[in-house]
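Take our chain:
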Amino acid sequence: MLILLVLALAASWWSRLRLEKSLAAAAGRAVIQLGLVSLIIAGVVGRVGWSLLFASLMFAIAVFTSTRRVGAPRAWPWAALAMAAGVLPVLLTIFLTGAVPFNGPSIVPMAGIIIGGVMNGHSLAGRRVFGSLRDEYGSYEAALSIGLTRPQAIGEVSARHLPEALVPALDQTRTVGLVTLPGAFVGVLLGGGSPLQAGAAQVLVLVGLLAAESITVAVAHRLIKQALLLPPDLAESLRP
């Protein structure tokens, strides 16, 4: 790890990025955070109740992070609704069908993967849609001027930018096995599973991420059009 960090620092110094302090701080923070989380997980995975509580904590942090990222901290209840709409159906399907056993060691990693994907999808959707509404405010006003309602006018601007939020998930799914071997595949192999078992686990994760992120983006867009999930400046300016 130290050798890899030195390589990163050397690349920053050589190319004059001036990110040496940031890289070192990020690496140190990762070590501390993952160390603490590892200790916590070791204590909670033995019981389903504690694992569910830890998954709920991860979800709360994801909502906090995403609302800050898109500049809409006061709209966190609506962001939580959109993200929960993606997380809950996917996790319920995975566990109720028996595809993954419902126990502590399975709940924490599966919930973490799905929640993390939903957080990224929500953040990307918010940033793209809110940016387009600011940049194309004239189009919004033009839509209102021809008699469209506020949700319809917002949708006229935002709809064409929304698919960009799913590009990372789509690219990862399309190129899996050809460009990258994601974490679930590698984890099963390192845990002693067969390549077929690793492949099955990874496909389950990738399709679950696609479903969760698609639902979250769709629900978030509906809430945005209803002017419920908006940053303060857009909530003020996007008046019918």
Remarks:
- The chain has a mean pLDDT of 89.
- The first helix runs from residue 2 to 14.
- The CA atoms of residues 89 and 212 lie 8 Å apart.
- The two ends are 55 Å apart (CA to CA).
